[in-house]
Specification:
heterotrimer; A: 292 residues; mainly alpha; MetI-like fold; 0% strand; C: alpha+beta; D-Maltodextrin-Binding Protein, domain 2; 17 helices
């Protein structure tokens, strides 16, 4: 009896404890180890033993133009991908937000890109974007447009990758917003109708503000993943041509597993984590303030 | 009236256009998987051709895809199973005792760049003699599945009125008993959602498996990527492999469509 | 709850046990490349197993992943690898420096040419057995050249003139790898033929005039006559285009010959595909001829005796002969002298090999530990040159910067000037 009451009194600790221990076990060592490595010069190509160099790796990586470009590129990719997905996703949701024949089929179709394996998606789009034999250029030609180089040129590689990301993830925003729309109460909209507001005004001043928390949450989820995008870029370009599509995640991978500069790679990873953490925190703040 | 008809037509045109864009890459992949290498690289792209099954033959006979298939399934199922075991009580606790910090801690796993885990895990798992074992892969995939389970289930438990277990507790039952006997049986839909989603994410994972798995435990995404091998690009084979890897996830999605949509939208809409 | 935990623990520990049951039987772990010879070995392993009673756990990986996996395992001192395929020019120096190769004093190297052994030997000892040799050749379309009334180009001037003449919207006159780092190996023969080098005695020198001229020429050829999007193309993108009949001339390694004449993979009839010596440059003709793959013992292997047995078998003359018959150009000299084998091999391969073996250069990339990083740096020059069709005004300046960078890396790794 007394033991059971002990369990019950401490249920709020005992229930989550296994999960906490597990996450801590799998995460704490890697996090500490990455921090530790970022302070060393561990570099397998030198064959020299690992030694502690303080912030030297930070100084070297953070001033490297290649790193700064990758950092900017990570933001550019994320900003455009998430912004386009947000606008398109909300727009499509607003269009589909009515009863129509085949709505459930449409919803199912929207799910498919979300569950498609990213590596495989990347490879399929590679075939599609091939400048000489790919279908993308065939379509452009047949409607009378000039052919593009897609992922084969530094100028168009980032937009092309954004297209793939938009294709795969816009449906997620749409589905989330659709669910949000279904949960909205109709009263404010009807009241606005009674007051003689136009459809556009209702959308702009009633529906969208009510949806804002949902939209922002959807965007946070996308933002976290977009900043860390790896599979698609890795499978499609590996960061190329040159470094034209190299984001922080890809750069960190190359530094770890192609250059074997473990110390410097860890610096990139620390920065990437701070970026992801900072951006998520920022948007969460934005959401709380929009709720007030 | 005419205006209404027009807007209806316009509406369906838009819906069809969206459907085409969404479906298009899948269809092209499917079509290409039945082409020979010669047909795939021909220009203008061939829409009519003699279909061949040789790509699928290659994928399943020469490449041992069934083994990778089984590996992906084992890893996914066990990782999701353990994640439920660990995640359900945690999610319950977060929901009922409003442990915000705890949920943030578990979601941290989602914020970390996956690459930063790889080298440290490598060191730990190899010291424990766990390289190329299912256990190492399962543990790593649990780090994908567990946050999903916690995220979805804590929201789900919040929708179950507290009176459900409180009335039982008034009758003398312990809270843990109430959780197992009353709350869990009510949570079927939530659990299906969490299971399907976390399984699909585990199924699609490339990064962890690429470093932690070897011949014995190689999973499907790695096998697909490996199709691009030295001195040979077999586009037809790659496409057939891509079809093979996506089919199970798509079938699962079709069966559990309602739940998957809920899972993807739940946290966002309620949170 | 407790029951669930107990159940979980039981399952976890049983999984662990099952992974630890690698019993005391005679077992080897072998890492192979996704390479035709790796495939050949893998298919033949059951014969080895029945003959010796040794169980071989073989695993094939794509080349980049193979390097990554070996390095990560060795560096974290966690490897259970006994024998592995290795690329001497890509990873040899790094592996040697870290002490990951086991020396092979007992192996009979007499069947391997001296220049081939140069990359397998460090100081007095040899550390790996060469498997496959590759050299650079010119693939061309016989029918296209014939229709245009042109002969096969023998030097760079002719190469340019020919490419210019046959280049059209639907047919690229010339192709070679343009994808930055991947292009570095194919560019090397151009650099040599202009009289330049990547590294000279451990110092980067590719900012000297001959090397820069070569990079300009490479960029001019690909920028003017190359296929669309060539700066993102490695062999895996160019070969399908050649097979689709969209490229007239292509310089790349000899390994691809089997693929471009295979009727199941190509739209171009085999009799229309030619193979010729790499064209001469202004200074000389010294295309690369390299040991692209070798096989080695892992230093930390606990089964060195068994591992040596496997290595002897995997490098045997019999398997080399088998490799030759499947169009793999093996490193052993004797198989190139065996009349029975030569009769079944394409004469183009035999001739171009003889030429390259006599005149060629045994390196196709900067030979250093941090070769991956150096290739990326040189690759930037290649892309700049292609994008400007060889006219870039800043190429010299960029080359100086990259040379400084490579020299800095060489200093970092203690290889500068050695």
């Amino acid at each position: 009896m007394s033991q059971s009451s002990f369990t019950e009194r401490n249920l709020h600790i005992l229930f989550p404890l296994p999960a906490i221990i597990f996450v801590a076990m799998l995460m704490v060592f890697p996090v500490l180890y990455t921090l530790f490595l970022s302070l060393t010069n561990w570099n397998l190509t030198s064959g020299a033993p690992l030694s502690f160099v303080g912030l030297k790796s930070y100084a070297r990586v953070l001033t490297e133009p290649r790193f700064l470009h990758a950092l900017t590129r990570t933001f550019v990719f994320t900003f455009f991908a998430v912004a386009i997905e947000g606008v398109l996703g909300v727009a499509i949701a607003l269009i589909l937000n009515r009863a129509f024949v085949g709505k459930s089929v449409a919803k199912l179709l929207l799910l498919l890109p979300l569950v498609a394996t990213p590596v495989a998606v990347g490879i399929v789009f590679n075939l599609f974007f091939d400048p000489t034999t790919g279908l993308a250029n065939y379509i452009l030609t047949s409607v009378g447009l000039p052919q593009g180089l897609w992922i084969s040129s530094a100028a168009s590689v980032l937009p092309s990758l954004i297209i793939v990301d938009v294709w795969q993830w816009t449906p997620m925003i749409t589905l989330i917003v659709l669910a949000g729309l279904a949960g909205l109460s109709n009263e404010p909209v009807e009241a606005a109708h009674v007051d003689g507001a136009s459809e556009w005004q209702i959308l702009r001043y009633v529906t969208i503000p009510m949806l804002m928390p949902v939209i922002l949450t959807a965007m946070i989820l996308r933002l976290i993943d977009a900043l860390k995008t790896f599979d698609i870029i890795f499978a499609m370009t590996g960061g190329g041509p040159g470094y034209a599509s190299e984001t922080l995640n890809i750069m960190a991978y190359k530094y770890s597993f192609e250059y074997f500069r473990m110390g410097q790679s860890s610096v990139i990873l620390v920065v990437l984590f701070l970026v992801v953490f900072g951006c998520s925190l920022g948007i969460m703040k934005l959401r709380t303030s929009s709720e007030i | 009236m005419n205006k209404k008809l027009l807007s209806n037509i316009l509406f369906y045109l838009i819906v069809i256009a969206i459907a085409c864009i969404v479906l298009f890459p899948f269809l092209w992949m499917l079509v290409s998987s039945f082409k020979t290498q010669v047909d795939i690289i021909s220009w203008p792209p061939k829409f009519f051709f003699t279909p061949t099954l040789q790509n699928y033959q290659k994928v399943f006979e020469e490449q041992d895809f069934l083994k990778y298939f089984l590996n992906s399934t084992i890893v996914g199922v066990v990782a999701v199973g353990f994640s439920l075991v660990l995640g359900l009580p945690a999610a319950y606790s977060i929901a009922r005792f409003t442990q915000k910090k705890l949920s943030v801690f578990i979601l941290l796993a989602r914020l970390m760049p996956g690459i930063s885990f790889l080298v440290p895990w490598y060191i730990v798992f190899s010291r424990l003699n766990l390289m190329d074992s299912y256990l190492a892969l399962i543990l790593s995939h649990m780090l994908i599945a567990l946050p999903i389970v916690v995220w979805i289930m804590s929201t789900y438990f919040n929708t179950i009125p507290r009176e459900m277990e409180e009335s039982a507790m008034v009758d003398g039952a312990t809270r843990q008993y109430a959780f197992f006997a009353i709350i869990l049986p009510l949570s079927g839909p939530g659990i299906i959602t969490a299971t399907t989603l976390s399984f699909i994410f585990s199924w699609n994972n490339f990064m962890f498996s690429q470093v932690l798995s070897m011949e014995k435990t190689k999973t499907l995404p790695i096998a697909v990527y490996n199709f691009l091998s030295y001195a040979e690009v077999d586009w037809g084979g790659v496409m057939a492999a891509a079809v093979a890897i996506m089919t199970p996830a798509i079938i699962l999605t079709m069966i559990f469509q309602k739940y998957v949509v809920k899972g993807l939208t739940m946290g966002a809409v309620k949170g | 709850m407790r029951k669930l935990l107990v159940a979980a623990l039981v399952i976890l520990s049983s999984l662990w046990l099952s992974s630890n049951t690698m019993a005391e039987t005679k077992e080897l772990r072998v890492l192979l490349a996704n390479h035709p010879y790796g495939d050949l070995l893998k298919a033949a392993i059951p014969e080895f197993e029945t003959a010796t009673g040794i169980k071989v756990n073989a695993e094939s990986l794509q080349e980049g992943q193979l390097t990554t996996k070996l390095t990560t395992e060795f560096a974290t001192k966690s490897s259970s690898v006994d024998v592995f395929m290795t690329r001497p020019l890509q990873e040899g120096k790094m592996f040697y420096k870290n002490g990951w190769y086991e020396p092979l004093p007992g192996f009979d190297f007499s069947d391997y040419p001296k220049n081939v052994m140069s990359v397998a030997t460090f100081g007095p000892k040899s550390y790996l057995v060469p498997l496959v040799t590759e050299w650079q050749v010119l693939y061309y379309r016989k029918d296209v050249l014939k229709d245009a009334g042109l002969k096969v180009p023998e030097n760079f001037t002719e190469l340019e003139a020919t490419a210019k003449k046959i280049n059209s919207d639907s047919l690229a006159g010339f192709a070679s790898r343009g994808k930055g780092a991947a292009a570095v190996t194919q560019l090397s023969s151009y650099v040599y033929n202009y009289g330049g080098l990547y590294l000279d005695n451990g110092v980067a020198v590719f900012d000297a005039k001959p090397a820069v001229d070569a990079i300009r020429f490479y960029g001019k050829m690909l920028g003017n006559f190359g296929p669309k999007g060539v700066t993102s193309m490695s062999w895996e993108n160019i070969m399908p285009l050649f097979q689709a009949g969209k490229i007239a001339m292509w310089t790349d390694a000899s390994v691809f010959y089997g693929q471009v004449v295979d009727p199941a993979k190509t739209q171009v009839a085999a009799e229309n595909v030619g193979i010729a010596n790499f064209p001469a440059g202004p200074k000389m003709n010294s295309p690369f001829i390299v040991t692209s793959w070798g096989i080695a013992l892992a230093k930390q292997s606990k089964n060195k005796e068994l591992a040596m047995k496997f290595l002897e078998w995997a490098t045997s003359k019999e398997l080399a002969a088998k490799g030759m018959l499947s169009n793999i150009t093996m490193a052993r000299s004797s198989v190139w002298e065996d009349k029975a084998i030569l009769a079944k091999i394409n004469p183009g391969l035999v001739e171009t090999r003889a030429y390259a073996a006599k005149n060629g250069n045994p390196l196709d990339r900067p030979y250093m530990s941090a070769v991956g990083e150096a290739r990326d740096l040189i690759g930037e020059l290649v892309i700049e040159s292609i994008n400007t069709k060889g006219e870039s005004v800043s190429l010299e300046k960029m080359a100086k910067e990259k040379v400084a960078k490579v020299n800095e890396i060489l200093q970092d790794t203690g290889e500068y000037g050695k």
